[in-house]
Amino acid sequence: MNSQFEPGAPISIATLPNLRDLGGWATTSGRRVRSGLMYRSTDLDRLDATGLADLGRLGLRTVIDFRTEAERKAQPDQIPPGATQIICDVLADARDSAPAQLSRIMADPKHAGDFLGEGKSAALFESGYRAIVALPSALAAYRCFFATLLEEERRPLLFHCTTGKDRTGWAAAVALTLLGVSRENVMRDYMLTNAQLLPALQPVVDRFAAAGGSPELLRPVLGVQSEYLESAFHEADRRFGSMESYLADGLGLDRAAQEHLRQLLTEE
Q1: Is 0.85 topped by the overall pTM?
Q2: pLDDT per residue over 24-66, tens digit each?
Q3: Which residue of 136, 145, 172, 231 shows the fewest CB atoms closer than 10 Å?
Q4: Residue 130 to residues 68, 81, 102, 139, 237, Cα–Cα distance (Å)
Q5: Cα–Cα distance, 111 to 248 (Å, whole number)
Q6: CB contact set of 119 (below 8 Å; sequence gap of 6+)
Q7: What angle is formed at CA 171 by the lines to CA 94 and CA 2, rounded to 5 degrees?
Q8: How far apart are CA 70 and CA 54, in angstroms?
Q9: Residue 187: enclosing H or E segment and its boundaries?
Q10: Strand 266-267 vs strand 32-33: parallel, antiparallel, or unpaired?
Q11: How far apart are CA 213 and CA 205, in angstroms?
Q12: Beta carbons of 214 and 112 less than 8 angstroms apart
């Protein structure tokens, strides 16, 4: 199976939704993000034999897992042959992370409105996105991600969290921003999750509704909204002054390392 060269095009593996190549996006300097080097997806625990074989054809050398220890134990990844898993736990320092809160919400659908109604879901996620910028464990995790990207023997790599939309979404947004992709196209890649993930989650919505919950409450939880990503960008600017300073001071990527990544991961 070949990498998709149209920016944001889904790679079709039935048991691995929200899988796409970060390549193909144009940069503001007239270059283009190279395809076949960086992939984003959901977790890899549901892969069947066919899906695992299809994923293996991407030639992955590394799988970066942004999930918590509890998430990894509950749904361990299936790693394709030839790839090594690296743990970069974004929420290790979070006392009450969004995944934990959402687990409780899903367990009590009839009272989900108390947690998610009247705009509370947006506030929950915007707070969560600020945390993935500021938490010490988040800074360490994304530092690990970019340090791995710099190592030639680690590419191609795939990175993921649970649904591949929040922790993964920020990693993709930062990577594309570093490489010179416009904010508009960074947001386009981010918002593709709604088309590429939500259909696969319809059984979750159906079970939630059958247990007495309102399906309308779940869309801002299971999908993404532009305000979530914008809150992370705002937090990076507030804490570090700019994205370049976030990369340098927060993630340990000085200007030389940033430029090196641009040369490695973009082409004419």
Answers
A1: yes
A2: 999 999 999 999 999 999 999 999 999 999 999 999 999 999 9
A3: 136
A4: 17, 36, 17, 12, 11
A5: 43
A6: none
A7: 135
A8: 27
A9: helix 183-196
A10: antiparallel
A11: 9
A12: yes
